[in-house]
């Protein structure tokens, strides 16, 4: 291989929501050398990267250097696109800044050592909640959490809040409680008027450590093995390919690229690997299989008067959670929220938060730079289709409520499966593509400490290890998992 070989105790692949946490936590021990490799661009200070800090928009439009777009199939015959953050801070540096914990029932679907009681201390440790205190909340963690004050709500959020109360839904002031439902303000990872990703909260303050090296614009192409032990990675950087040797490799490339990287390295469904000319290191049928995400229908509406939005308005200020439905009154149309997206029609987002349908990621080619095939297989079950229809019907009812009357009118009167299919999209919350599980679960890729089964020296710390997508946005849970895996690796 061309290029020099570097060595470290730990190499972390991917400087996103999870990888920044792991690199920062593991390098707190000055005797441990850590190398973080991130394929996207980086920055050393807030001043260098203003658009990833502007929480009022998502910088993932067609010309953005900070988003990687993938062609996907939502259901057979319905192509679409999804995006992942491609910058230090990852998807959490470009997302809606909606920073909400998974609920207690979500963790009943995880292995017992990840019960709500086990994970709550990590949720508390990662945050400083400026609005709430007490046993459920942290006061000294790196990520600031706040909510938009009621007197600053945008016109849509204020009307939505009233409409939900009119329909009899409960007020839920703290959506980071144990198991709540109702209408309430969105917890936001925003501080000093900026989006606070894990790059800003964890990594930038650690950059001066002599035992931490952060290489950006460095794309890892495969994990290196000696037998069934991971011994480092191969990385393309500055036009050259080189090796980074390490005692432990931690994959945090996200729920799309972590399984892709594993498959290119010989860990995946053996037959699929052989079909692509890749020699299996171990047969791992769960790699890329059975992922979950929240389907989202964009329910369009007409505006009777211009929608006012405060200069401080985030993308989302309030949501309604009811059963498996989440309704999201975006504060503006997507051409405003995602510059360059060209979507001028305002919408309510209708998400199904505990879907039954499961998707699949497979290699489309043996060539490393060819995008994978991503099949969502949304709405495959009657229950998922019913949930989508019911959610849309509730959205229409909210838009018809008197609170909205002077502002907007619904476009849809009747809700059919065809209309739902035509407006189907994804919440961009893909999780569980290398899920964690017990040894009797043939589809489990990692054990409860997130070590890859059948391989030594290889750990995964990102949203791919979630057994299933949580019933809320996954960002806060990704940070919690990274915090916890860091303690496993430090122990
Ligand atoms: C547009 C958008 C909006 C969203 N909105 C919200 C929201 O408001 N609330 C919420 O809870 N969730 C939201 N999400 C989801 C949430 O942000 C993600 O689930 C979470 O950030 C994923 O964390 P991760 O660590 O698994 O991966 P990521 O944060 O995606 O990090 C992966 C990192 O690895 C890097 N990488 C990939 N491949 C390689 C490689 N081969 N070599 C080196 N580096 C590599 C990538 O560049 C990236 O930086 C949103 C996601 C998107 C894309």
Automatic annotation (TrEMBL):
This is Mycofactocin system GMC family oxidoreductase MftG. It comes from Rhodococcus oxybenzonivorans. It comes from the Bacteria. InterPro entries: FAD/NAD-bd_sf, GMC_oxidoreductase_bact, GMC_OxRdtase, GMC_OxRdtase_N, GMC_OxRtase_C. GO terms for molecular function: flavin adenine dinucleotide binding; oxidoreductase activity, acting on CH-OH group of donors. FAD binds at residues 87, 220. Its cofactor is FAD. Pfam families: GMC_oxred_C, GMC_oxred_N. Belongs to the GMC oxidoreductase family. Residues 254-268 form the Glucose-methanol-choline oxidoreductase N-terminal domain. Keywords: FAD, Flavoprotein. The keyword Flavoprotein applies.
